[in-house]
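Input sequence (161 aa), recorded before submission:
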Amino acid sequence: MSLAKQNIIVSVLVFFVFVLLGIYLPVVLERTQGGKQTMDMSIVKNDCDVTREYCRAEVDGKAVRFMIHGPIHYLQHFDYDLSLSGFAPNAVERVMVEFDMLDMQMGLNRYTPQAAEDDQTWAGVAVLPVCVSGRKDWRVTLVLETGEGSYRGRFDFVVEP
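Predicted structure, token format:
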């Protein structure tokens, strides 16, 4: 086999290794967080609409309540807030609010709300991009990072036309 063919084969193999690392490494890192555990919180009321009421997710005595205020329209700012219960004071080091669609790549829509002085209430502002397919179904994922690991709660909602 010629040297040129060997170089092409090695280049293709290296490319595929990097592609696989790019796909699986973020998933592995998100799950393990350096040995820390990610715990999924269960939604308490399945038909809860975060655009109309506070919805609650919980696990092991720890809970988060979340609400989006006002109707949501694409490319327009909206307010949201969340409150925690069952967490020790200052246990939650960081909160991230991520918006995405199932089976549709909408880019990175991650926001970091600001904590109130009580350390149990967080609030922020977000804006959603337009989905060119016309879909309006979204999911918000709340990620609560603590020294023990992360807690994750998910709620589905619909954007107003």
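Checked by second reader. The chain has a mean pLDDT of 86.
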